[in-house]
Amino acid sequence: MGSMVLAAVSGPCVNCHTMHNSQGGDPMMLGGVTGPLGALVRSSCLGCHTTTLSDPLATPSGGSGLYPFVKSTTAGFNDDNCLAGGFFPADDGTANQGKAHSLGSTAAPPGYNATPDWYTGDTNGLSCAGTNGCHGSQSVLDEMGAIKGGHHAPPTVYRILWAYNNGTVTGVAGIGATDYEKALIAGTSAPPGSYARSAATKARNIYKAGTTNDTVSRLCANCHGQFHSDVGSASPWHRHPTDVKLPNEWTVQLDTLETDVDAKYNPFGFDALVTTGKKYATCLSCHRAHGTANKDLLRFAYLTGDTGTAAIQSAGSGLHYGCLGCHNKQR
Amino acid sequence: MAWKRRSMVLSRLSFFLLSIFLLFVFYILAVPSPVLAKVIGECVNCHTMHNSQGGTPMPGVGNIPETGPFSALTRGTCVGCHSNTGSATIKTLGSSNIPVVFNTVPPATGTELAGGNFYWVVNSGESYGHNVLTIPGIVQDTKLSEAPGIPTQAQNGAPCDGCHSKIADCTSCHNPYHHGEDERPVVGVTQKGNAHKAVYYRYLANGSSHHSAGGVSGIEDSDWERTKSSSDHNEYKGGVLSTSGGHDADRSMSDYCGGCHQKFHDSSLVGTSSPWLRHPNNYALPAATNKEYRLYNTQDGTTIGPYSTEAPVARPVLSGYTGPSSTVTPGTDQVFCLSCHRPHGTPYKDILRWDYDGMIAGTTGTTARTGCFICHTSKDGV
CA A178, A180, A186, A192 torsion: positive or negative? Predict the structure, then answer.
């Protein structure tokens, strides 16, 4: 299904690097990006991970190997054609507002309560990595410096992600699908009601959850800490819990299967990174990190008017995924 | 001959399939679709995951100012959701219909729901309803420091008075398990799920760990009696009086009221028919021909009338009921607490369904055959 050790980047160095950002008197940057950039790269994160086409995992023109793309300039991505992290919209206009992390925004992250205050994106604008973003070191400003070692050395952390934990930096654990869940997302449809549960067959990520500092929800808490720590308790919750085990008596906990539908619409977290263990709620059980076709980066339609491909979550609707994938009593 | 046999077989098969189909259609048409008590509708109507939208707290759906986050990730408190600044007593959020128990303006005439309305407590005074302290405008009663008829175990600072001496919030009476499994048509017959999360009639359930789990049974009218008639109403569960009342033993409505007003429900304190010391409840309307109650709700003075939504009766046994019935049977059906009262609030003192001061024995006026006289049919002047 996946491995912690993903293949390091391979291919001609010139595809990604330029020594002096100069060739025949001209700069060597790609994608309209102004250089030079850290680590001698020829483009920004999005510059390399954006495609003009619609295949989210493909070899770009002039490149080699498969690039995971998080943005399509021709709006080629949607909730059934993207990778596990989701996608940024081609058009950052009003219609797509709230459906993705707003790159470039200086707004304070909702629920931000980090101590010490590490985030600089409220001054510089949200970006992909470093102290302005999510990937890489949370103490390095330069994006390329922050993700240093993430592309060439076999990764030791999940998706070049570290949780800040208010100063105690811990690499996020997890097992990544080798195809970034491309086949799972493309090959799984939201059923209109209940469905015959059988074990997942497509490659999927396995998210770390639990009480340790290396969970994926801890990463989200770097910026949205209040949503992780100020949630109340089981009687009663004030905000949706994360890194909490689903109650033993819930249907999904009694059925140890994780299906392709669950993996796409309401994936569980596991404390031992094996899907035969108890199921946990994580941030990624409901959200994708980059963006989706639904508001609030949700994997499913929750708000009236959501344009995602799944029906809106509604008590009594009989749906068996999304909110109702776990909350079986509300089906 | 072979084709003839085949034809006969096919003919019989077709007849069989047609019969099954017709039976199925008949079943669908004849058996009313159950109206579920549990909430349905878009999750977003009532819930917010993080109480954050666009960097600001999620706007509530209630009609009173209040700030989250709220328990169970709701977008308002009980009264926040179940209140309305307009006069409508049912409001709609998306595809969810929400019963309103607190209008900040007079409820639309004739549309008040079965439980009554806290508007009257706020605007008419403390004797016009239960003083639930979380409702804006309601304060601790100036005359009553504890519930009238309070159980001895809860009197004067006794251990039980923490729950039984005041109505701190809606959960003093309701255990609002909105998504719990309930059965139809009679809710609360068998306990489903966790003992303190089982669904009972109108979520009237014992939520305390100090009591054995229990609650009230009943048939819930689909629009909370916003529209009502003798054949369109709640059906209430009756039971018995007892010296240990208030513990939901018989799942009756009156026994539940007895949780706080126990002395009004205690068989040793209410008395007997000779004489009653307090108004009976969970007691069958006498059927004897020399008793006035046999003419319950009479319209002509000589024959019994239909079920009255003004002075309802309770049924000691609800099994067998598939819905509301307009028939009242003296000797079986009972007077109970809600025959005279509504639990939230009414326009009348003592949370009565009518103006007690207007009940004039011997009257032939407009109050004849109303209120008390619906049962006490010989006491008015008609």
Answer: positive
Could you tell me the pTM of the whole model? Answer: 0.81
Residue that has been written with the tokens 């980047």 in this structure: A9
The least confident of A27-31, A244-248, A306-310 is A306-310
Contact A238 B41 (CB under 8 A): no
Per CB-CB distance under 8 Å, the chain B contacts of A241 are none
Residues A217-263 pLDDT 10s: 999 999 999 999 999 998 789 999 999 999 998 989 988 899 999 99
C-alpha–C-alpha distance, residues A312 and A305, integer Å: 9
Any bridge partners for residue A298, and if so which?
A287
Residue count (chain B): 382
Q: How far is B17 from chain A (nearest CA, A)?
A: 27
Angstroms from B344 CA to nearest CA on chain A: 25
Burial degree of A40 (CB within 10 A; 0-12, 13-18, 19+): middle
Q: Do A302 and B181 touch (CB under 8 A)?
A: no
Which chain B residues have a beta carbon less than 8 Å from that of A238?
51, 68-71, 73
Cite the DSSP H helix spans in A143-274.
Answer: 143-146, 182-187, 216-224, 226-229, 251-254, 260-265
Token pair belonging to B66 = 């209040």
Burial class (CB within 10 angstroms; exposed 0-12, middle 13-18, buried 19+) of B87: middle
- Kindly report the nearest CA distance between residue A304 and chain B, in angstroms: 8
Asked whether the CA dihedral A86, A92, A96, A100 is positive or negative, the reply is positive
B172 three-state secondary structure: helix
SS3 B4: helix
Whether residues B44 and A238 touch (CB distance < 8 A) is answered with no
Residue A161 has pLDDT above 50, yes or no: yes
Choose the closest CB to A237 out of B73, B180, B181.
B73
**Predicted confidence (pLDDT) at residue B211 exceeds the cutoff of 70:** no
| Interchain CB distance below 8 Å, B181 and A329 | yes
Quick check: B49 and A286 CB within 8 A? yes
CB atoms within 10 A of CB B229: 12
User: Of A91, A68, A126, nearest to A307 (Cα)?
Assistant: A91
Q: Which two tokens stand for residue B173?
A: 């009476």
Give the C-alpha separation, A181 to A191, whole Å: 19
Mean pLDDT of B95-116: 94
The pair phi, psi for residue A132, each rounded to 5°, is -100, -5
Report the C-alpha gap between B260 and B150 in whole angstroms.
5
The residues near A122 (Cβ < 8 Å, ≥ 6 apart) are A106, A107, A108, A109
* Backbone dihedral angles phi then psi of residue A175, each to the nearest 5 degrees: -120, 125
Of B96 and B337, more confident: B337
Spatial contact of B114 and B342, defined as CB atoms under 8 Å apart:
yes
Token duo for residue B238:
């009756």
The answer to whether A80 and A87 have CB atoms below 8 angstroms apart is no
Residues of B in contact with A317 (CB under 8 A): 40
